[in-house]
Hints:
Order of helices and strands: HHEHEEEEHEEEHEHEHHHHH
Distance between the termini: 21 Å
Structural class: alpha+beta
Number of helices: 11
Helix content: 40-55%
Largest sheet: 10 strands, mixed
Amino acid sequence: MLDLALKDLKEHKVRTILTALGIFIAITAIVSLGSISAGVNELVTSATGTIGSDTIFVMKTFDFSEMSGPPTAWQIEDIEAEDVEAIRSISGVERVVPIIARQFGGFFEVDAIDMNDVDIFGGVDLEFKEGMWPDNDDEGAALGYLVANMLDVVVGDYITLNEKEVEVLGIFEEGSGAYDLVVLIPYDYGDEIYETEGGATQIMIEPQDVSMVQEIKQTIEDEHDDLDAMTMEDALSMMEEVTGTLNIMTLGIGFVASIVAAIGIIITMYTSVLERRRQLGIMKAVGALRRTILVQILQEGLLISVLSSLVAVGVSFFFVDMLNNVLLGGSNLAVITPLLAVGAVSYGIILTVFSSLYPAWIAVKTDPIKAIREG
């Protein structure tokens, strides 16, 4: 049966290639787009894993519907200095860390923070490719690996932040997670550059005790109508919504590609059955069982799907590498995980089997006498 399947695929090269091409396109689209979702999920996991579960985040209240332009152009309004001080005085608050955040270069972000508080972001154990952390009285910055790579700078060079020249004092090692995408500067220096007058884009709060998290959150929202306070649980839920939306978009595009591939498989396999009616009729006339005919047709589809899916996954590694290095400036944002690769190959096989069922059923129903007579 396997020999017959291979022989038929070789004899009808154009049909075989068309079927394989449909599967290849669908699986390549799924893996390439899915790699972005997988990379974003890993980035979110690494970023949130370094922050304590009792941390509270405070930002100005904002409405997505009122924001215009691409997301990279959005800037949440800063919290006033008096609000920062008011939060410091709330009962149960152990530490308040104001952060000034600004978009930079499209993909990146500038964060101004007290250098004594970088541990709240899990930055204590970070390793540097070159240079070191700036001190609070330094007028310099520590750059993520991808930022430095995109700007093509080394320690001692200067970057421009809000029309001011800032010296590069350190560059993090590659693979530092979310730190690959940021520029870190001392809070006072950032306050001077962006003229925030002691304010902050975001405030991170550590309570004296984890049991006081909800109480502090409620106090902030009650006393400050224009501020939103989120616990780590709230932040994770919001991030899951964002990544969930990205996953749905990926599945949607993959589904459309799958429909196109399925139609191509049905047409080419149905054509194969029509071309081989006489052969199928002879097989049934000499005693071939229905399941034998069914297995032969499905076997052809499986041979094509396995080979096409494996080639598609291999080619996807090339596309993902090009996406990371050409479009994303050397990042590792897109990642093909083992689960994604295995899932894509399995999906290609299942898609082909289901799409081959109708042509296989037509083959099984072939009348041997009529097929031999009419050919």
